[in-house]
Amino acid sequence: MRPTPVVQRRQLLTALPAALALTGCDAITRNPTARAIVESGEQATWRWQRVVGRDGLAREFSAADISPVFKANGTKRPGNPEWQRLAAGGFADWRLKISGLVGRELSLSLADLARLPQRTQITRHDCVEGWSAIGQWTGPALSQLLKAAALRDGARYIVFLCADDYGAEAAKGGLQSASRYYESIDLVDAFHPQTILAHSLNNAPIDAAHGAPLRLRVERQLGYKQAKYLMQIVVADSLAPFGGGKGGYWPDRGYEWYAGT
Amino acid sequence: MVALGNGRQTADSAAMASTAPALDAAPPPRRVLRHHWLVRVTHWLNAAAIIILLMTGLNIFGAHPRLYWGHAGSVDQGERLWLETGASPPWRNPSGWIEICGTRFDTTGLIGVSASPTGSRSMVAFPHWATLPAMRDLATARRWHFFAAWVLILNGLAWLGFGLASGRLARDILPSRAQLTRAHLWHDIVEHARLRFPKGQAALSYAALQRLAYAGVALVLIPVVILTGLAMSPGMDAAWPWLDALWGGRQSARSVHFIAMAAIAGFIVLHLALVLLSGPVRQIGAMVTGRMTIGGDR
């Protein structure tokens, strides 16, 4: 068949995207405009999940479902001198500070937290890498503490500061650097009934590898949101002043801040 | 109504035409509208989304190249592990492998161990040319995966809505009762095996195997990857508790997601091969411009 201009145009139309796809696929992931468009997907997902499941409860399992070994990830024992001193004293001197946009700043010991009504839940922990483990967590609901501290107008985020100079994790690839671990959540998750500050895992005080003495459980999000080694809670109107400004150690390194996905 | 012109031809008479010996009576060549604009737009958006989803998915898999059944599974809990990839010593010259249900296959060069862009040996689940980004980068791969997932879902809903409302889904994609008889299916298999593709009016309608493949991908595999993908989201599992119950747990959903992905990848290979064998310029041209020349010897 004799080629006609139509055919040539058609060949171009089909060959061009294929050539672009082969040479440009990897480069486009580094293009700032492309990144901004792609990252808008996180906003869509956050809003969508708030519309369809604002008050949804994470599934709670039975004792028979508890993982024989709950995999410990990230830091297994903080090198931070303050944490080490507190751990050596059995966390008797440890205090959780609650500050920022609150009517009343709080400083709470483990005994203070144990005197509050407790919630126990057997839930599935989903790591961003792909694995899951089931464990039983016990602790007071975060909402009780926030009500006691009385949020002030403008409060939008609850920020968790940790005694964890996190050393990055080569296995995850991408940007790697060491800095203080922190995390943050919105008020919907902060006041969710399953959002607790856990001091116990499977009926025993949380050990060093799993976040002693206290870790956040925000059950509708991925594992990296479950901040370990809690030292301070800050109620804030913006995430900009903390870390790299994206609301968490891993969000500063490219991961979604809203990790319900 | 021009767009619907080809649709009036029933699938059965189209299939008959392909076997009719009356080729010398074929009408002169003419250009006809083969694909509605919405079908063309959704086809290419779908193609782009699926390529991105496949390549970023293989990158994401590399962060934890193990699959389990049930709710939970990790390197510390492997009682229901059924698939794993990895690398074995000697580390100066490692070998790559995939282990499926206890049987290990050597896949050096492709899975477990493959050449990096610089030519050195890299111990990753899938090779750099198959993943997006090329290098291991879970954060970027996830961002692109979820963006493309939004495109896949919204685009798929547009296609499905159009197909249902216009009646095209039933008429053009679902096989007819007559096409599903053993004799007709066998005839269609033989025609495909001999690489004899429909001509004339028959080229304007999909054959039985084609319909089964398209319906299987669009109405079974893609809904399965979407529902298993959503079941891996802790937020969606809390919003819709039936999601992970449907698959028997999040790790089962991850396994089925991977299997459905492999089936879709298989379909793409077959689809591209048949497009190339049946006249790529004509076929791809029709999916770009919407028009196709039929009659004469075509």
How would you characterize the overall build of this protein?
- The complex is a heterodimer of chains A (261) and B (298).
- Chain A is α+β, with helices and mostly antiparallel strands and 261 residues long.
- Chain A has six helices and eleven strands.
- In chain A, 28% of the residues lie in helices and 23% in strands.
- Chain A has one domain (58-253): Sulfite Oxidase, Chain A, domain 2.
- Chain B is an alpha+beta fold and 298 residues long.
- Chain B has two domains: 6-62 and 131-294, Transmembrane di-heme cytochromes, Chain C (Fumarate Reductase Cytochrome B subunit), CATH 1.20.950.20; 65-125, no CATH class.
- In chain B, 52% of the residues lie in helices and 11% in strands.
- Chain B is built from ten helices and eight strands.
- In chain B, helix 2 (37-61) runs antiparallel to helix 3 and helix 6 packs antiparallel against helix 9.
- Chain B is globular and about 70 Å long.
- Residues 1-22 of chain B have low confidence and may be disordered.
- Chains A and B meet through helix 1, helix 2 and strand 4 of A and helix 2, helix 3, helix 7, helix 9 and helix 10 of B.
Q: Give a short account of the largest sheet of chain A.
A: 5 strands, mixed
The class by helix and strand makeup of chain A works out as: alpha+beta
Distinct helical segment count of chain B: 10
Low-confidence stretches of chain A: 1-7, 9-13
Beta-strand portion of chain A reads: 15-25%
Looking across the biggest beta sheet of chain B, what order are the strands in? 2-3-4-5
Helix content of chain A: 25-40%
Radius of gyration of chain B: 22 Å
Which band does the percent of strand residues of chain B land in?
5-15%
Helical percent range of chain B? 40-55%
**Number of E strands of chain A:** 11
What string, H for helix and E for strand, traces the elements of chain A in order? HHHEEHEEHEEHEEEEE
The poorly predicted ranges of chain B are 1-22
Q: What Rg of chain A do the Cα atoms give?
A: 22 Å
On the 0 to 100 scale, the average pLDDT of chain A is 90
The count of helical stretches of chain A stands at: 6
Which quaternary structure do these chains form?
heterodimer
Shape of chain B: globular
CATH topology of chain A: Sulfite Oxidase, Chain A, domain 2
